[in-house]
Amino acid sequence: xxxxxxxxxxxxxxxxxxxxxxxxxxxxxxxxxxxxxxxxxxxxxxxxxxxxxxxxxxxxxxxxxxxxxxxxxxxxxxxxxxxxxxxxxxxxxxxxxxxxxxxxxxxxxxxxxxxxxxxxxxxxxxxxxxxxxxxxxxxxxxxxxxxxxxxxxxxxxxxxxxxxxxxxxxxxxxxxxxxxxxxxxxxxxxxxxxxxxxxxxxxx
Length: 204
Fold this sequence. Notes:
Blueprint lengths: L25 E12 L2 E6 L5 E5 L3 E2 L4 E2 L7 H4 L6 E2 L2 E6 L7 E5 L2 H14 L12 E7 L7 E5 L1 H6 L6 H8 L4 H4 L5 H11 L7
């Protein structure tokens, strides 16, 4: 199983212990490296109103399409639940004084802006030699949590095109690729996790 070009019963299956990048209000600046894992996830409800992400196995990572012939255990417990788009990459926060590798959970509209900028800038942002810093703004547009707008600054991105530094290359080299960080779990692992996570609700 390869990534595209451009997480026991008590642990969410398929997810290594890698921190997720927290998008700041205002300007954000990250550098991607490696591939992209294309997934759809369910947010399954648990006790006390909390929710947990679980991969939709009916979405084929390789073909980037849904295949209803693939067993999807979430439907056994939550037949009306709908999966959400959840692509992810590895990144380094270029504004962090102590950079580390994080999971970058893409926002779909921002993802599309980045994809469109590839043609304008002339290279994939995750390329180790010719890639570029992804610089974007997060701005609140209303009172709700989802009232947020992400805007890529293509001009700034183009001005920060070039190879990873030796320190950045070392950080990424010591880290497993995104397809290992977000391994595709088995149907059995997911079912075991759901039963443990939802145990107080007595799912069946």
